[in-house]
Amino acid sequence: MTNLGTSLWLQPPRNSPIWQQLATTIQGLKPIFSDSENFEPHITLTSNISVNTQGQVDFVLDRAVAAAKCVPQGFQIHLSSVKYGSRFFKKVYLQVEPTPELLSLARICREDFVYMPEAMSQARNYQAMSAEERQKIDTQVGQRAAEWTRNEYDPHVSLVYSDLYPVEDADRRTIETRLEDTFGSGYDESGLGWKNGRFALVRCEGPVDEWEVLGVRDF
């Protein structure tokens, strides 16, 4: 298992039907995997955020809300078909449509909360730099975040965390039957998803049951 540092999650509205369906599915699939964990439904926007104070937690959450509210029609998440992978955190998951709005939000979060703090800490004195020097760093950080979003970011909603691999065909059939029972036949083409929701800043270090929610914002 890999420590993810502190991660920013985008979650369905608390106690909404889709929240309940996803949470029930995560819990219901645990018996299929002997090492599976329970966790809240979410899309990770970025990991490796460094926060040490409540003020930093508030900054991240407030900035994320401000970015999401720039979408005038509301922030829409679209889920599609179930996928299977080899990694612990992407064993069984629902793919999320990489809409321009979602990719833009992930890029902003990666830039503002990961790459910019790194660049500022590596600079000898960022605030004392000339405007031209700061602009050069800002441009490099923006380009790095755009490249990460283009080449590495893969939005999804995990349903199972597990080291077991591969997922056997019989287990796949069981999983897909349960998903259809929960979400309905053809759920992957029926517009499954949610609008707006909640940001959660979560310290993802150590065992999953020891992860700590540092703060949340509904939007």
From TrEMBL:
Any Pfam family matching the protein: CPDase
Transmembrane segments: none
Top-rank taxon, per record: Eukaryota
Classification via InterPro entries: Cyclic-nucl_3Pdiesterase, Cyclic_Pdiesterase
Major enzyme class: hydrolase
Residues of the signal peptide: none
MF term (GO), any: 2',3'-cyclic-nucleotide 3'-phosphodiesterase activity
One of the protein's GO biological processes: cyclic nucleotide metabolic process
EC number(s) on file: 3.1.4.37
Family according to the record: Belongs to the 2H phosphoesterase superfamily. CPD1 family.
Function statement: Involved in the metabolism of ADP-ribose 1',2'-cyclic phosphate which is produced as a consequence of tRNA splicing.
Name of the featured protein: 2',3'-cyclic-nucleotide 3'-phosphodiesterase
